[in-house]
Amino acid sequence: MQKRDILIVGQGLAGSLLALELEKRGKNVMILDNNPIVSSSKVAAGLYNPITGRKMAKTWLADELFPNLSKYYQDLEKKMNTRFHFSKTIYRPFNNIEEQNDWSLRTMELGYAPYIKSTSSHSIEVDQLLDPLGGFFVNNSGMVDVATLVSACKKYFKAQDSYIEWSVPSEALEMEEEKIKLGSFVANQIIFCEGPMAAINPLWSDLKFRLVKGEILDGSCSLTIDHVVSKGIFMLPYKNYLRVGSTYDNHNQNEEPTEKGSRELLNRLSKLYSGNLKVLKHQAGLRPATFDRRPFVGFHHKHKNVAIFNGFGSKGVSLIPYFAMSLADHICFGKKMPLEVNPLR
Ligand SMILES: Cc1cc2nc3c(=O)[nH]c(=O)nc-3n(C[C@H](O)[C@H](O)[C@H](O)COP(=O)(O)OP(=O)(O)OC[C@H]3O[C@@H](n4cnc5c(N)ncnc54)[C@H](O)[C@@H]3O)c2cc1C
Q1: Domain residues for 18?
Q2: What is the number of the ligand 1 atom nearest to the C-alpha of 309?
Q3: pLDDT for 166-225, tens place per residue?
Q4: Lower CB count within 10 Å: N or C terminus of the chain?
């Protein structure tokens, strides 16, 4: 039997960043992942944006998450010797005059200044961009190429002898008072970072996941713009193509791209961009969300050495680094975790 401090099931963004934080704190980890072709992390657009939604409000924990986020990913790029982080300004065009007015009140609220780059009350005059009422530019925003990050981490963990490819069946887990046995491994603790797959793991049947399917198109077009445009859908210029996403579908729990999804995206795109998108790639995935929009981070109610790190929904890129550090501090130094993310809440 190989002895490890902690086993981690799943190597998406959650498992990768948690493993790195535990390793930084001196833990000897082993990651087990089934290396799927499609996963939430492999499909994610990877945007992080402190001001979101129709209300154009700061997202949950914005002041804790965003000031250090780009530095976090830049440091990780250095460690992995791979580029996957891109600081990108997000431009949010106004839908109507009412929104313009709401926004001017918003800008006067305390605590918004660090996230606002500028506001324009008229079109920013980018050829073929449909923004007659102008909009605002967000600061502290950007994009992480999550698939590249996960692939770089996999290479890193393999080189450390901390990764094996295995689709872990739930019945293979042997839980004892002080230790965990799984295949040829014995460990003090195990942490499940299974993304949407947790919804079918009997260990977590008490937790209610809300899996939200999302579809994304990559294509070529004649739009020349550096920043991301976000209004209901996003247009993300990346490499030599434009990425357009995403749909939100609570009913179909599969990872199949659909004609309906593509039509919906192109239809919404036509309200933001007057040119044509030549679609080159169409992907779909499931977001591991929860009903109260808070992740599940913490230990099992019956098994004190079994934990979960999941439920990051559509905000994995901004939430996962912060909660990976919090959970690692909790495990290694006994620091308290916020009740809001406790799986038993
Ligand atoms: C279309 C779309 C667009 C998105 N856009 C954004 C965005 O712009 N910004 C943002 O922040 N987030 C976005 N997200 C959400 C983001 O992708 C997720 O929050 C994040 O990737 C979740 O990571 P995870 O590690 O929890 O899950 P996953 O990436 O699904 O990773 C889980 C891993 O565990 C493996 N696994 C599961 N069970 C087992 C088992 N029993 N044995 C072995 N391996 C197992 C899986 O195969 C997988 O490799 C988007 C998601 C989708 C689908």
Answers
A1: 2-43+147-208+292-341
A2: 26
A3: 999 999 999 988 899 999 999 999 999 999 999 999 999 999 999 999 999 999 999 999
A4: N
- Give a yes or no: residue 14 inside a domain: yes
For residue 295 and ligand 1, the question of a CB distance below 6 A is answered with no
Query: Can you give the CATH number for the domain in which 260 is found?
Result: 3.30.9.10
The ligand 1 atom at the shortest distance from the C-alpha of residue 13 is 25
In a domain, 279, yes or no: yes
Q: Is 144 in the pocket of ligand 1 (CB under 6 A)?
A: no
What is the ipTM for the molecules in this complex? 0.99
What CA–CA distances, in Å, run from 39 to 59, 228, 245, 263, 314? 25, 23, 16, 23, 13
| 246: preceding bond cis by omega (within 30 degrees) | yes
Question: Do 196 and 286 contact (CB within 8 A), yes or no?
Answer: yes
Same domain, 215 and 280: yes
**Ligand 1 contact, 314 CB (< 6 A):** yes
Number of domains in the chain: 2
Tokens linked to 204: 């977590």
Task: Calculate how far, in angstroms, residue 97's C-alpha sits from the geometric centre of ligand 1.
Answer: 37
**Predicted pLDDT at 177:** 83
Atom of ligand 1 at shortest distance to CA of 47? 8
